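Minimal example, chain plus zinc ion.
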Amino acid sequence: MSLKTILTLGIETSCDETAAAVIADGKQILSNVIASQVDLHQRFGGVVPEIAARKHIETIFPVIDQALMDADVALTEIDLIAVTYGPGLVGGLLVGLQAAKSLAFALNKPLIGVNHIEGHIYANILANPELEPPFVCLTASGGHTDLLYISEFGYYDIMGRTRDDAAGEAFDKIARVLGLPYPGGPQIDRLAKQGNRNAIEFPRGLAGDDTFDFSFSGLKTAALNYLNRAKQMGAEIHIPDFAASFQWAIVDVLASKVIRAAREKDVKQIILSGGVAANSSLRAQVQALAEPLGIKVLFPPPVLCTDNAAMIASAGHFKHLAGYSHGWDLNAVPNLRLE
Ligand code: KG4
Ligand code: ZN
């Protein structure tokens, strides 16, 4: 007799993507709908929280309908509802939570709140269903940069995290100054491919061996100073060289720390997650350093690196199996951390 498949509906509204997904048994994506608000925020150079929240309200139920339709699953067949409750923008989180609670209440199904950062880690399980700990994980996006040792799913040993800006935030801020559209990370990644990464020597924050923490604010200041100085002197900036050098200053530090962490923990697997894990140079550099050491490097396809609800559904499924569930008092926690 085969065991019944567990269908999870995931909901993600923590930033500027309204997303819903249906997944089977925590690992198989049946649908993954992502309605991006990027066009709405682009002219402001970043996400405007009030506009984001309003758009989530308009979009959430059509996106959920679409996810059910794509999966060919009726709402009544859903077994579990998983929703991001933090970290993120409070207005957006509340919209997702309200939708999730209403559905869970109406269907009389369990509700599970998911930490968005934990969701990013589970994107790797969707991409590599056979993945088993132990591993070291670098999870870097617009809101966080954490280096974790995971000996068992659900337990996170935080080896290091950023002390100031997140890696994605540094990409976005400098891209904005260059007049590139939001989000800046993919733009810099694209331009850097035509540039020389050694053209400009930018500082590496906390590059020493004494910490696994990161710092990107010094790099950001140095990059801004470089641009201002060039402007004052009327010098022309070679944008691809600038982009490649700036990107390399981030990638160099991220890659060497994740490798050092894997060596310290003596693990043979590294996983990358979060929007910045979509960066082509980061992927290539971690792989290049890991290969001679016999360390395997795994990362999700770009669509599962950036925000999506399939990863939230996956994390929710496994949290639920581990015995977690939430009540109707589940609230948004904008500055939720991974513990
Ligand atoms: O995970 P995500 O979609 O949202 C947050 O949780 O923040 O990550 C978005 C971040 C943005 O800062 C974006 O610029 C960055 O990930 N990003 C990239 C790339 N693709 C997205 N950064 C560098 N290179 C990329 N290819
Ligand atoms: Zn994210």
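Strands lie at 7-12, 17-24, 28-36, 80-86, 111-115, 135-140, 145-152, 155-161, 269-273, 296-298. The chain is about 45% helix and 20% strand.
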